[in-house]
Amino acid sequence: MSDEKIALVLGATGGIGGTLARRLAADGWRIRALHRDAAARPATPGVDWIQGDAMRRDDVMAAARGTTLIVHAVNPPGYRDWDKLVLPMLDNTIAAAKASGARILFPGTVYNFGPDAFRNPSETAPQNPLTRKGAIRVEMERRLERAAAEGVRTLIVRAGDFFGPGAGNSWFAQLVRPGRPVRTITDPGRPGLAHQWAYLPDMAETFVRLLGVADRLPDFAVFHMRGHVDPDGTAMIAAIRRAVDRPEIKLRRFPWWLLPLAAPFVTVLREVREMRYLWREPVVMTNERLVALLGVEPHTALDTAIRETLAGLGCLPQAAGVAGDGVSPARQTA
User: Fold this and answer.
1) CA separation for the pair 88, 99 (Å, rounded)
2) CA–CA separation, 95 vs 55, rounded Å?
3) In CA terms, which of 54, 211, 215, 292 is 20 to 30 Å from 273?
């Protein structure tokens, strides 16, 4: 029997899926990446592109055969048909994990929590989201918890809004314009409001370190990251200005007033509108459980994280042509 560590990554071309694939590969894992057009993917050291669709159970089951880890980081592009696609894809992952004995890694978010969770929700805080997307997130975790009772081990790390190389579909991409030099910064937050961010390489590093103590984890393990907390909404803006060496860059307010008019016609804007409460209320998850186990949370300096993110988005002159395809090599700092 081979001792090779094999991980199936669903969503390897996305921000967190690609970042996790790279970090696991660096830790000696052989990566299988499921893709609907595998033949068109560029050759990547340590990554085997597998033809298949996360919506087809047989494809996921076949790809997971012989694996000990399944990364479930797949999402419909542009948030289209979330309510129709997300749960069936997760059910396929659970079925594949049952058959293969693999542990599921599931990147979680702050969207599980509504304002009633107060300012600093722990892992056990009540989950009463105000949004459709949040309700689906809660249901996903409930299904994983039920599966854990049947022997399917799951590791969830919840974090704030993602940013980092390859995280093109993110709130950070609303602050700047991907593919263009930074000329203005758009601020969606209420002045003086704290906001929680998660740098994707730090999140991937957290998963890997938790896997290093897997023998101490319950079958259903949930941890919160603190990540980067902007205490008053100015720290992220200041870091962007420093990264492009332009302290005079203008700040403009996010046009929330426009969303009720455009949201019925644009799916992404409808989802953005639902998340507005996180820019009006300071919901910052606490990481005491994570620190108690690992001793420290992986953390990249904000200025480094912002430079890497802007480079990945093609917003820095030296970053021309950087696409951030989800699995191509990128410098890891954690």
Assistant:
1) 17
2) 12
3) 54
Domain that holds residue 76: 5-162+198-227+282-299
DSSP 217-284: S-SEEEEE---EEESSS-HHHHHHHHHTT-TT-EEEE--GGGHHHHTTT-HHHHHHHHGGGGGTS---
Buried b or exposed e, range 92-128, using 16+ CB within 10 angstroms: bbbbbbeebebbbbbbbbbbbbbeebeeebebebebe
High-pLDDT (> 70) share of the chain, %: 84
CATH assignment of the domain containing 290 = 3.40.50.720
Dist. CA 62–CA 176, nearest whole Å? 41
Is 238 inside any structural domain? no
H helices of 128-196, in order, are 132-148, 172-175
Rounded average pLDDT over 255-268: 54
Q: Which residue has the tokens 């809004």?
A: 161
Q: Give the separation between CA 199 and CA 305, rounded to whole angstroms.
A: 7
Query: 126 near 117, Cβ under 8 Å?
Result: yes
Secondary structure letter of residue 319 according to DSSP: G
Interatomic CA distance for residues 207 and 205, integer angstroms? 5
Q: Which helix (H) or strand (E) holds 302?
A: helix 302-312
Inter-residue contact 135 to 111 (CB < 8 Å):
no
- Residue 87 near residue 136 (C-beta atoms within 8 A): yes
Determine the pLDDT at residue 74.
92
260 falls within a domain = no
pLDDT tens per residue across span 292-328: 999 999 999 999 999 999 999 999 986 444 444 455 4
Asked if residue 234 is part of any domain, the answer here is no
Per-residue pLDDT of 72-87, as tens digits, reads 999 876 556 767 899 9
The residue type of 294 is: L
Task: Judge if pTM exceeds 0.85.
Answer: yes
Which residue, 98, 189, 186, is CA-closest to 149?
Answer: 98
- Asked, for residue 147, whether it belongs to a domain, the answer is yes
Domain count, the chain: 1
